Hints:
Number of helices: 11
Structural class: alpha/beta
Radius of gyration: 23 Å
Distance between the termini: 46 Å
Largest sheet: 6 strands, parallel
Amino acid sequence: MNQAVTQDTFLRELRDSRPAAALIEQQVRAALAEDLGGGDRTAALLPADRQSRVELITRQNAVVCGGAWFDEVFRQLDPGVSIEWRAADGERMEPGQMLCTLTGATRALLSGERTAMNYLQTLSGTANRARLYADAVAGLPVRLLDTRKTLPGLRVQQKYAVQCGGCHNHRMGLFDAILIKENHILAAGSITAALNAAFAVAAGLPVEIEVESLDELEEALAAGATHLLLDNFDLDRLRRAVDLVGGKARLEASGSVTLDRVRDIAETGVDDISIGDLTKDVVSIDLSMRFVDA
């Protein structure tokens, strides 16, 4: 398959996995209410009939993400605003590249600028971070997973951005999988007791358990675990865990994962690596909305 077809397929899958339009509308409505309150007092100084054209430019290498939220900001402020995109979510962008142009009422363009840019800069920053990690393990049979360490109120958006960057999603929240961690085990009394309780109520949900040593791993396997989270294992213990399990369970490495260590971790043979850094310490992408005709 050539590169063009691969990119087209990737972008089509991203469109299919994007959150529903109704959810995006709800999220943007809340974001605009936070910024506009009773109205944009400064934009109101301009004539209501004034029209402008705006160019959105990137000032750095990055991965684009957040177009649907960007569009929705202006749709809610003024459906007459026209947006012409020259880049799609998941595509790489270069310094000086024009991402889109906007034409419409000057008041709406000014009032929506910050909210729209907040979405695009933050989600592109998330996607870009994910792409750096994905590139670091290129060619290896491992999945890089996000975590629940997302910015408050941006869980769905950031998890979508992680996909745009070429990584994968772990559970969305506490409701769509069972992940038994250290405190759950302590409360239940043992790894075996915690797993037995989980299997009794799982009702089709994935069940994963955290282990902190090879002894705990063996206990979890004996109790029927099929997904194991290896918490802060060093490289040698990760390799030993892979050999010990021998494919009988899925192994996820977690804890202290950094960009300079992720390939070494992947080369131990684990199936998954979960990385809080994908969404927790996001650096926004430098973009500029420039009025070229007002």
